[in-house]
Predict the structure of Rho crystallin.
Amino acid sequence: MSVYPCLLMNDGNRIPVVGFGTYAPDKIPKSLAEDATKVAIEVGYRHIDGAHIYGNEVEVGRAIKKKIEDGTVKREDLFFTGKLWSNSHTTERVRPALEKSLADLQLDYLDLYIIHTPVELKPGEDLMPMDENQKPIYHNTDIRDTWSGPTALEECKDAGLVKSIGVSNFNRKQLELILNKPGLKYKPVCNQVECHVYLNQKKMLEFCKSHDIILVGYSALGSSRDENWIDQSSPVLLEDPVLNEIARKHSRTTAQVAMRFLLQRGIVVLAKSFNPVRIKQNFQLFDFQLPEEDMKTIEALNKDLRYDPSFIWKDHPKYPFHDEY
């Protein structure tokens, strides 16, 4: 599928180790997602990470279609990740949600479909259902039914609509709920979590490796600093003086060093940018290696700092970040 490194997942499929993230804050025009995805495919990315909640699957799908039509790639060269949003966890809503994403993306199948978050919202078409006090309206589905109830994720895989299935933003106990489910047919292939130099996810990585689950890291460069979600007083990762010093030593960008640190720990790295120069730079990770001393220095920068703690649903019974990991 790809000329650049992949990791073997527990279902036998392979995931490219660097992915292009397509999330953007609301203030960014949706058309930029289309342009950036085209650039990403042109410079060599073969792993594209999307989600229904990002609201740009139509534009991202158009970019993929154009790059297939002009001969840049074949569909089988690409690895596309989609995500099941929190308003569709009830078993009867899983397959229709996937089919909607496929239609918007103009794809016959996804390579990976993951539960975006263990937090569940009121089932329906409203992406962020709110009550009269502007509080999210929660729901409580057994996440094991989302995984393997009738027409749920395992059946979507059996139907060929998706090749691999996984989760995102799950803590260890939530992963264990699925792993220990009686009659489990397919283990999650991955857990996609916030992961970067300031939140290096050491314990979650060890747990996932012990169960042959791949850790996929988002916000690898810190975050997009979206005012709706991110504490604007939090430190800017790419301004870290130690990271910058290591980058200068290797004649690399700080972003390249931050991503390479994750790659060398066996983590799949997602990076997003709408700047064509940076999109290209962020992909140039395979022609250098960080020595062990630099890896240890960077590991010591960990602050357990979560840029996106999703406090909006901190009172949800399935809020995943009360636990250490």
Summary: The chain has eleven helices and ten strands. The mean pLDDT is 95. The first strand starts at residue 6 and ends at 8. Residues 6-307 form a domain with the TIM Barrel fold (CATH 3.20.20.100).
